[in-house]
Amino acid sequence: MEKMRPVPRTVFAQPKEFHNIEEQKKQNRERIKELRLESDTRQPSCARLSVRKKKQQELHHPSMFKAQPVKRVSNKAEVRLNTASIVREWEVYKKMEEEQEKKFCDLEAGAFDCIAYKSWRSEQEKRKTSDRLALAEKLRLNSLLSRESAFHAKRKLLQEKRTNASSLEEESHRLQEQLERTNKAELIKASIVAKGVRANRAGVRHAARKVQVDKKNTAKMMAYEKQKDHERINEQLDEDRRKKASIIKRIRSEEEAWLLEKENYPRPYDPTDIPGYGLLSEMSLAELKERLFLLRQQNSIILADKIKDIKCQRQTKIENITELQKLISCFKNAKAASRSPSK
Predict the structure, then answer these.
(1) What is the C-alpha separation between 255 and 272, in angstroms, rounded?
(2) 8-state DSSP, 343
(3) Which of 30, 54, 57, 147 suits 73 as a labelling partner, its CA being 20 to 30 A distant?
(4) C-alpha gyration radius of the chain
């Protein structure tokens, strides 16, 4: 047989992934530092870490009783992704590859014989059968032990139940006797209380009848006094009405007499007349109305100009805000485009 070509050394050399992992770690550390600085600058003062006092640390002392940790058994093998473990496993794999390569070379040279292989195979089969029998014996013994422990536990449980039942019977007899004694005492107390209640009810009935009679008498007196008060108030109101009517008649007669005099005749009203009291900037009623109308018109023109100015300012602000939003969106898109190839 011709010898196989030796495997190239590049197959068993260290792969490039380790170098890539180190570079990725460096980039991640730099990115984490940048994000940490950015978050610290944006973080408010109330959210920053502060050293607690000793009293607060003493309050949060650990509890004396701790629960036992739950033992979890998983069928999956653990996968460790540390670089040290990867390198270690790679070295083991490399040694195994070298041993296999050496074995193949020895086999090609005719170092081993089929007799040794058959003996090794028979030894392996014997070992498997012995392991299988030992495992079956172990399972049988475990089942016997579990049955024996279950039998002892059941017997112990039955004994505990018997003792508990006997103690419960004694306790129930004692409580029944105590209940009978308490019931007799309560019956005697209830009879005494019933007699007192009957006597109290009779007194309450007599007092209620007396109170009803007193209420009727007071109601009659109140009605009589109320009727008298209404009559007196009606008489006073009638007298007040008569006095008011006489006063109104006298005032009307005096007004008619004053109007009948010649000096007090009502004069004709002219809105363009000036009163003539000798005051500064004295004017007639028509002139005052005209000035007020002009002033209102001037105020409405000024108000319309102000509204136009406010609208123009608002429009300019809206335009500036839209321009700023467009610039911000452009900057964000450029920043995202610059970050995407680095990732």
Answers:
(1) 30
(2) -
(3) 147
(4) 58
Instruction: Residue 18: name the closest of 80, 86, 79 by CA.
Output: 86
- Residue 265 tokens, joined: 């005749």
**CA torsion angle 123 128 130 135 (round to 10):** 160
**Contact status, residue 111 vs residue 103, Cβ threshold 8 Å:** no
Q: Cα torsion for 5, 11, 13, 18, to the nearest 10°?
A: 180
Rounded to the nearest angstrom, the gap between the alpha carbon of residue 95 and the centroid of all alpha carbons in its chain is: 59
What angle, 0 to 180 degrees and rounded to 10, lies between the N-to-C axes of helices 17-42 and 83-109?
A: 170
Q: Is the dihedral of CA 7, 8, 13, 19 positive or negative?
A: negative
SS3 content of the chain, % helix, strand, coil (to 5): 80, 0, 20
pLDDT score for 122: 84
Are residues 12 and 97 in contact, defined by beta-carbon separation less than 8 angstroms? yes
Residues 119, 122, 124, 126, CA torsion sign? negative
Q: How far is CA 36 from CA 33, 42, 217, in A?
A: 5, 10, 92
Q: What is the pLDDT of residue 83?
A: 67
Taking only the tens place, the pLDDT of each residue in 271-303 is: 777 777 777 777 888 888 898 999 999 999 999
How far apart are alpha carbons 39 and 49 in whole angstroms? 13
* pLDDT for res 8: 66
Query: In this structure, what token pair is assigned to residue 39?
Result: 């978050």
